[in-house]
Amino acid sequence: MAEWVKKQLRGEEPEAPSVTQLREWSKDGDPMHKQFKSIVRIANPDVLNSGWSVRSVISQYNGKPFLSNKTHTMERRGDTLILCFDVHIFSFLARKMYFEQLEMFGKLVLDVGFVVESRDQKYLPERFIGCVRLIKFDPESFCAKISDRF
To answer: What is the average per-residue pLDDT within 88-93?
Structure first.
């Protein structure tokens, strides 16, 4: 999280509308939990050795935000907010693409960002609440019990 966001959350600076929304969103039972957007972008799609259909899907959806409301759970442990994403709940196409390209993850550079969707004018403009760049990511080492069920 950016330092300016941390300062605003601690009350050291006036809160931007997006930080106010983040504060409200992170409360237990907040109805905005369904407004969580994930954005995944493959920074180097040229390394994929795949057919036309995979390249077409990637070019169409690469970097497009999607609501991940049904695929994640959220819990709070002290000052830590934990989000868990379950790929098995993703749509059929997303699961199929994920598992078919699993061996390619080690070659990909993935940019992943998260936004709380603003449905109220008072929270605009939307801003990232977190982002990460994954390089040489190996899902097998992080997800030892991963399955290939569809």
So the answer is: 76
Q: C-alpha distances in angstroms, 137 versus 102, 106, 129?
A: 10, 5, 22
Q: Helix/strand/coil (H, E, C) string of 64-121?
A: CEEECCCCEEEEEECCEEEEEECHHHCCHHHHHHHHHCHHHHHHCEEEEEEEECCCCH
Burial of 58 (0-12, 13-18, 19+ CB in 10 A): middle
This prediction's pTM = 0.71
Establish if 137 belongs to a structural domain.
yes
Is 129 within a domain? yes
Q: Is residue 48 part of a domain?
A: yes
Domain that holds residue 26: 3-142
